[in-house]
Prior knowledge:
Bound molecules: zinc ion
Number of strands: 16
Order of helices and strands: EEEHEHHEHEEEEHHEEHEEHHEHEE
Mean pLDDT: 96
Structural class: alpha/beta
Amino acid sequence: MSRFEVLILGNSSATPMYGRHPTSQVVNFNERLFLIDCGEGTQMQLFRYGIRSNRINHIFISHLHGDHYLGLVGLLSSQHLMGRTSDLHLFGPTPLKEIIDLQFKYSDTQLRYNLVFHPTNPKLAEVILELPMLKVTSFPLQHRVDCTGFRFDEGKRSAPLNVQKVEQLNIPAPYLKLLKKGVDYVADDGTVYQAADLTFPAPCSRSYAFCSDTKMWDGYLKPIQNVSLLYHEATFLADMEDRATQTFHSTALQAAQVANKVKAGQLLIGHYSARYKDLQPFLLEAKPVFNNTILSEQGKWFLV
Ligand SMILES: [Zn+2]
Ligand SMILES: [Zn+2]
């Protein structure tokens, strides 16, 4: 089975505290690496956890609050200094392009590689990237500035062969791959063998959704429906709900309610406020509502 997992590089909200870095994550899909958000210090975190940054060809930035992108220009600059030549695709809010251009203009830097900028749409869900077996969608969140989440969907997985049946029928090897994809086999005598009879049901396709900074809001429930692993911010605990609403953030309880509503497989929470040293209360609050909740921890990979 191909690899599909998420490495947490940072799980802190605005002010880094208790060794927690601001938001950044690496998604590994079948050995392709994707970076989501790039808070200050992301380069150091990549190095710390043994990720070679030149393996990243796609970067997704949710919004332009510093804790989600202040590490980006440094990372782009290092790629230049390290002699990168392959294209780097950057997805983010429209003004991000201007910010980057300005930084490089005044440092008189002409990047050696092609930085391809793709503006995200803060109003509508949109497919922003399609690769073999993987589709990435951005969708609007509700925050103080334009902000999008990202959803990674695995393509249709192939069905495992029923080896016993296939061998009994002596089906030629070149057709086996097609059977796994659901194509029926027609023998020389015209007999049709249904793919469904010669394979086991294909495993469900996996999906990961990243809900960056947001107030709990119905508008993003549809795009994250039935996701296998849901990352949702949980900046505060429920006793700070008023503060969460004012600042367009969520509580651990709200994150759990969202996971419940969208029938997520598992909930991963993060973006903890600097006011909390101990994170166990987040779990205690979320689990009664959504039992399959886990705390994001820096340096840890989470299976999708
Ligand atoms: Zn933030
Ligand atoms: Zn924010």
